[in-house]
Write a structure and sequence with these properties.
The complex is a heterodimer of chains A (492) and B (508). Chain A is mainly α and 492 residues long. Chain A has a domain at 300-492. Helix content of chain A is 76%, strand content 1%. Chain A has 21 helices and two strands. In chain A, strands 1-2 form a two-stranded antiparallel sheet. In chain A, helix 2 runs antiparallel to helix 3 and helix 6 runs parallel beside helix 12 (245-270). The radius of gyration of chain A is 22 Å and the shape is globular. With 508 residues, chain B is mainly α. Chain B has 21 helices and four strands. Chain B has a two-stranded antiparallel ribbon. The chains are: A mainly alpha (492), B mainly alpha (508). Chain A binds chain B through residues 388, 392-395, 399, 403, 406-407, 410-411, 413, 415-416, 418-419, 422-423, 425-426, 429-430, 433, 437, 440-441, 475-476, 479-480, 483, and chain B through 69-73, 137-138, 141-142, 144-145, 148-149, 152-153, 159-160, 163-164, 167-168, 171-172, 175-176, 178-179, 182-183, 185-186, 210-213, 222.
Chain lengths: 492, 508
Amino acid sequence: MQIGLNYLYSISYYVPECIALLTMVGVLFLEVTYNNNNEKRTLSLTFTSLGLLLVILSLTYNLSLEPTAIFYNAVKIDKFGTLNKLIAAIATFYCVYLGYKSKDIYGYLKSEFYLLVLGVLIGGMLLISANNFLTVYLGIETLSILSYPLAALKRSDEKSSEAGLKYALYGGISAGIMLFGISLIFGLCGTIQFGEITEKLHILTNLQKAILIPSFLLFFVGLGYKISSVPFHMWTPDVYEGSPIPVTTFFSMVPKIAGMAALVRISEVFFIEKSVLQYSWVGVLTVVSALTMTVGNVTAIGQRSVKRMLAYSSIAQIGNIMLGALVIDQVGSQAVVFYFYSYVAMTAVAFGVTMVLSDQYGNDYFDRFNGLIYRNPILAIALIVALFSLAGLPPFIGFVAKFNIISGIVKNGFYTLAVVAVLNSVISLYYYMRLVRLMVLKKPDSNEELYSSTTLMKIMMVCFTAFIIFSGIFWERLYNLTSLGINITVNH
Amino acid sequence: MHHLLSWILWMPAIGMLGVLALPNSKPNVIRYWALLNTLITFALTIVLYLNFDQTVPGMQEQFSVRMPWIKQFNIFYSLGVDGISLPMILLTGLLFFLCILSSWTIEKSVRSYFALFLMLEASVFGVFLSLDFFLFYVFWEVMLIPMFFLIGVWGGENREYAAIKFFLYTFAGSVLMLVGMIALYFVSGQNSESFNIMALQGGKFGDLTLRLFGSDWNFAKIVFVGMFIGFAIKVPVFPFHTWLPHAHVQAPTAVSVILAGVLLKMGTYGFLRIAFPIFPEASVYFRECIAWLGLINVIYGALCAMAQTDVKKLVAYSSVSHMGFVMLGLAAMTIQGTNGAVLQMFNHGTSTAMMFLMIGVLYERSHHRWIVKPDGTKGFGGLYTQMPIYSIIFIIAMFASMGLPGLSGFISEALIFLGIYKEFTSITVLALIGLLIGAAYLLWMFKRMFFGEVNPEVSEYDDMNSREVFYMIPLCIAVIVFGIFPSPLLNMMRESVGALVNLMAKFH
């Protein structure tokens, strides 16, 4: 058994994470050296953006690396992980920009936002490439603990504080349960290394297997909480509603990408062989994903706040993505990566436009969107495209993402689940259309200028929309890119 | 010639981009541009007709386009035309051209209206031309987006409800089709998985089983049912028809025309192109069921139409009834029946388009459509003396729709009855009653609106102007000429329909 590279050699594979860490330190320095708030804001933004750009570049370079286990087998660098990190870094980049613009954060912002966001990203990257259970736990905790203050960033707002506390309580409990599960697995197998556990699985007695199944379920609680799958989703709407919009955007992307990547990795590492273990794991994921989709979509219908509606819709989307994890084959993991690339673009537009309106009026109720197309056609059209895409209408990328996911489950014979998934997209279309209807079919309440809709904002929205449409029609290239990540193997 | 089909498909899209590039301040320029564009498209479909080889069954090789689109999934940009799609393409080209003329009076957001309208045309052509299931599906869904906005923004008072209902209903049907399509893809061969509709045809999946809820089912039957629901919602077949009256009543005239004239045919076209030839054994298995559903459509649609006091709703329900005849013709699976069904698809397209256009003309004068107003008084009356030209054209439309001998509806309905009589005699007899009710509600409606004393309101209406007469003339010619001399249409479809019926006959 190979033990992976030692610390010194490992660093060369770990450049992106190191850059992110250095950027964090740099932002901290800027924070203490400058007094002028405005200057500091701009400087930290520039510095963070540059750091993230470097992270993205080095990740792109990492795509060419062969799969390697580093840090004595604790961390696995492979293309599946790198692809997920790449989209997480891009999402972070966008959120950093939103955070700079947002009125929600403006007043409170020193550099904490950048610091915390970068920290969460590092935790997420650790989780994505975790190769033993301790790293998984470490990743999740880094991710979570830094998320709590992010949720409570709007200090004077009660809802924001509530969100932070709620997030912390839920996070603490589920991490505890997860740790309990991990310790049971350790007790049964005598190791926390993924590679060694897979070998042990063959020689376990039936009784040991019977204990292993619930231990994995306990472990799943932690991940399920992070990706907010039903029944661990209760925190999501409140936290999303209470947090400032850039933070909400961030929460709906990065932790979910990281958690889902870990879920896919664990499913593929431990449950690839047909056995009673696979049967029960897939069974649990089937029920959980069907519930997640349905509960998310049905609850989204009655919401009054767009942010809350988007929170529930993101729960439903996660249910969809889980379908890619439960098939445990290459088509599935590829579909998950593809889904995230489209999900980030669509969610970015949805939250971006919501932020513009929420900055203007101080809330994001549905009727704020009345007649938006007559007031600000670019933002409205971008949002309409994003919403149709989220519902899975062609020729937008959301359709292709759903198509890939459903291909995966139909190929593996989950026909009922496929029907549940597509009927769910009909429900989702209903509440997305509520918003579209308001934007197009209602008269605008006022004609005042939307001051947050700056040229840069519009350009970004147009770029995302162009991506959604273009990649929805010519998705061959994106498909090729995401299919780099189909091989998840354990290092022996 | 090689790229003719691509030109037909993308010409409206070019038109749409042109409309978007024109300034909103010059509505007339936009209107003329859209008119010119649809005229060119219509001319291209005529060129297609002139070059069409009527002796070849199946797809016409000289027009076929096949380019790889997504290689990993074996998805092709693949277009083709045969005797079944050609009448639909001609109908689409003609109706969109006429509808642009009838939309001349649209004043609200002219640019968006015509852009969406042309987008709709492109997606409709896409559905009728695609030979790749994935491509077909994309166009099938894309079509919903312009329809939603056209009904929702330019429709009547209750337009939002109608638009959303239409959208959700059709989307629900098509996602079931999506699952069926993907399932089909994975069983279509070990190494040759494909969405190629022509390669999938021929009943290759009759023996496969599918595991569902812990027991084995026949793959073909289950997937057929899924697709059937998808197409049936579009037709619409009886339990799925409830979106149609709302959508029709609320939609602006031109959109109603397209909806009834072209979009409903996409459902039956789906049966002819996809559901029947891919799953012949399942379609034969279910055909009695389809015939009964068709019968319910005929009778129930006609009875509902009779009860209506809104003339547009009356015509909408008459569409349900007439599409029932198409379903009957399809269920017969005989040469006459299928010919009749395709012919009925074309003829219903022209006659119902006339009806909706005529109602639109009237609505522009009266701003209501009540035969009997909610307060019990007559909505119209004495139109015949007031608007003679209008009345004559209306009579032609009405009789064509009723199926009077000498007009187009008669031929297709007669063929359908000839085809189905031997197969399902009792259903034929019952369906004839539907024909009778059809005559009754149309004549009764005509009596109440056109005869009797002249209403004071009606005496202020002008007769049709030359633009309105102009766009009715081609349709009048179509219903009269194809009523007396249907052979151009029948020759066009004969070989393709023959091939389809032969395929089905193997599984009887």
